[in-house]
Amino acid sequence: MAHTTVTTTAFTDQKPGTSGLRKKVTVFQQANYLENFVQATFNAIGDCVGKSLVIGGDGRFYNQTAIQIILKMAAANGFSQVWVGQNGILSTPAASCVIRKYQAFGGIILSASHNPAGQDGDFGIKFNTSNGGPAPESITEAIFENSLTIKDYKISNDADIALDEIGSKELSGMTIDIIDSVSDYADLMETIFDFNQIQDLLAKDSFSMRFDAMHAVTGPYAKEILENRLGAEKGTVINGIPLPDFAKGHPDPNLTYAEELVAEMFSDHAPVFGAASDGDGDRNMILGANFFVTPSDSLAILAANADLVPAYKDGLSGIARSMPTSQAADRVAEKLGIEAHETPTGWKFFGNLLDADRATLCGEESFGTGSNHIREKDGLWAVLFWLNILAARSQSVADIVSQHWQTFGRNFYTRHDYEAIPNAEAEQVMQHLEDQLPTLTGKTFNGRTVSYADNFSYHDPIDNSVSSQQGIRIGFDGGDRIVYRLSGTGTEGATLRVYIESYEDDKAKLLDDTQQTLADLIELADSLAKIVDFTGRTTPTVIT
Ligand code: G6P
Ligand code: ZN
User: Fold this and answer.
1) CB 179 within 8 A of CB 85
2) pLDDT value of residue 491
């Protein structure tokens, strides 16, 4: 068990963000940078002796290099067992699945999600706990504290391990099992959905589907599940080979970045159903022929149709959504007579609710949807859920969505992002809003009266922890809402996100255009925050 204790100096910038530590690859390549963070994580865990870990990533550049370092450090710190996805590959939901299935102590996931990859791109690392979910803030804070005071780290002197052959190996006394990256996850999906019903749907001549893996991790998962197990036509999955630089793309499944899929789905030869997932496989975008389903609507529709899916047919315990996600799901929860929860942005906040069975389905406006089957959001799970609904209802995506609006009304919703703003300018916008909060309630703008204005604080009902400063909310009588927050996942400057929502139940207006319907609220959002004045930006970089 020969290992070395290496003396190191602390870095001051290793504070995990919304989803782990994300930095440019070149930052991670600095001497001791990754090692410090990994040792800080192990120090935060405390006694690692005899414990087990799952390790895998989205296959981006630096994935395997990082895994070799982490394996040697895990061995030197006393871990006894590690499961690694073959070739270092595990999508984020698959990692969560494997942690739970093998009852591992935790997991380390290497990913910067949808951020561009490659030598000049981003890399990321995060720690998940034994429930399969992202570490809560108490642990990420402890990791950060440790990273600030670290003086040395431990690393095995053994040689690299081959990651391409499935089977058991040993490194400095630690057992390493290289496992198939896909099968445990695919088996879990078979226990949730009605695969026979979906198979019948996919076999119909009238049905057609496209899934865009965006050159990232979901390719092998989608091919195994959709094409091999469910019999979808070969070629259903496009861009299905994961590349270390994601083909220089930006694997974020939204209308801006999933260009190839969007072009096909909004053409005269559009398939009936289209979907995409992101770099590490936890996000999803759902499309019908010439039709886009917002993630907020998708959550509400999955909840309203959950009784069609075997795993949820006995009912849901509750629905949770992140604060900026539209309130559409709350209306479904109300009708079903179940709890509705509003949490801060970040999947980790759903963990306690899922563990305590206070929520079964969760979703975020940022193209994340999932359930209690694992503790991460899950892109392919959402796609299979939609396929199960389409199979059971024999209707188009557009018909299912518009019928939902007929029943529940529609929460018109848009998010405007201003990316890569200098930090100081973004802070000015937020400060200007913060300064107005005490005086906004009761004021009327364009006929809308402010009913509340605050900076969102979340009180976790399970562990009573409080997370404050989670985004500025301005709510109006009747449910309209403007939310502002700074992204916690960017790596360049700041990204200001403005979320705008308006409820409509007039049946004649349900199919109106979103940007037009929201135009006056969008204008109000801009003028309240003085976005143009502070940032000089007249248009958002991305609209979802
Ligand atoms: C990641 C997290 C999500 C979160 C999203 C948006 O994908 O896993 O839970 O909603 O980032 O974060 P941001 O801070 O960039 O708005
Ligand atoms: Zn992701």
Assistant:
1) yes
2) 65
The span from the CA of 462 to the CA of 467, in Å, is 13
Q: Which ligand is nearest to the CA of 347?
A: 1
Q: What angle do CA 418, 424, 430 make, to 5 degrees?
A: 65
List where CATH 3.40.120.10 sits in the chain. 3-181, 185-408
At CA 379, angle to CA 375 and CA 380, rounded to 5?
A: 105
Task: Tell which one of 364, 485, 491, 495 to mutate to probe ligand 1, the residue whose CB is within 8 A of the most ligand atoms.
Answer: 364
Q: Ligand 2 mean position to 41 CA, how many Å?
A: 21
Q: Which of 137, 369, 489 to mutate to test the pocket of ligand 1 (most atoms within 8 A of CB)?
A: 489
What CATH number is given for 410-543 in this structure? 3.30.310.50
CATH topology for 3-181 is Alpha-D-Glucose-1,6-Bisphosphate; Chain A, domain 3 (3.40.120)
- Give CATH for domain 185-408: 3.40.120.10
**Distance of CA 86 from the midpoint of ligand 1 (Å):** 27
Whether 296 is catalytic is no
Tell which phi-psi region holds residue 500, choosing left (phi > 0), alpha (psi between -120 and 50) or beta.
beta
- What is the 57 CA–ligand 2 centroid distance (Å)? 11
Where are the domain boundaries for CATH 3.30.310.50 in the chain? 410-543
Which stretches of the chain score pLDDT less than 70?
Answer: 1, 490-491
Residue 342 in contact with residue 357, Cβ under 8 Å? no
Tell me: the pLDDT tens digits for 129-154? 999 999 988 899 999 999 999 999 99
Instruction: Name the catalytic one among 52, 91, 111, 113.
Output: 113
User: Which ipTM score applies to this complex?
Assistant: 0.96
Cα distance between residue 54 and residue 190, in whole Å: 22
pLDDT of residue 386: 98
Q: What percent of the chain has pLDDT over 70?
A: 99
Pocket of ligand 1 (CB under 6 A): 18-19, 113, 322, 345-347, 364, 366, 368, 487-489, 497
How far apart are alpha carbons 431 and 529 in whole angstroms? 9
DSSP type of residue 350: G
pLDDT digits (tens, 9 = 90+) for 250-291: 999 999 899 999 999 999 999 999 999 999 999 999 999 999
Q: For 411-423, give one letter per residue: b (16+ CB within 10 A) or e.
A: bbbbbbbbbebee
The pLDDT, as a whole number, for residue 492 is: 76
